[in-house]
Amino acid sequence: MRLFFLLLPWLELFTLIQLGIETSALTAVLYVFATLVLGLVVLRRQGRQMFERLQGVQQGRVLGVDLLMDDMAMGLAGLLLIFPGIISDVAALVVMIGPLRRRLARALGAPQPEPYAPGRDFDSEITIEGQFTRVDEDKKP
């Protein structure tokens, strides 16, 4: 695995050179610029959606861990699109396709996510809200 990450920049460079040879240098440069812009758009959109979901959790809505993981996966796809090269762009496309991403995660043995509900007692189905004071801090000399 280490060898792959050491060779990845060289493989990316090779693929871009091959793209330039097969088409033209201008096409390769435009391809890199277009994927950079697309990656920035994906990151910006996912960041905004993730922020809105986290605001919803503060208002008491339930945050599904799978939704949060999907947001993070799309952020990773945006980062992969920003890096120049065709290999990272193909990896970004794999991450961006939801069913393929989930199937790949199951194949790699990822645990099934459970939804998170803030302040919820799963035994009694009652949510307790209020203020509290730490008693042990009052007794300190």
From TrEMBL:
Provide the alphabetized UniProt keywords. Membrane, Transmembrane, Transmembrane helix
Its domain of life reads Bacteria
An example of a Gene Ontology cellular component annotation for this protein is: membrane
Parts of the chain that traverse the membrane: 25-43, 76-98
Q: Which InterPro entries match?
A: FxsA
The residues forming a coiled coil are none
| Entry keyword Membrane | yes
Mind telling me which PANTHER family this protein's record contains?
UPF0716 PROTEIN FXSA
Name this protein carries in UniProt? FxsA family protein
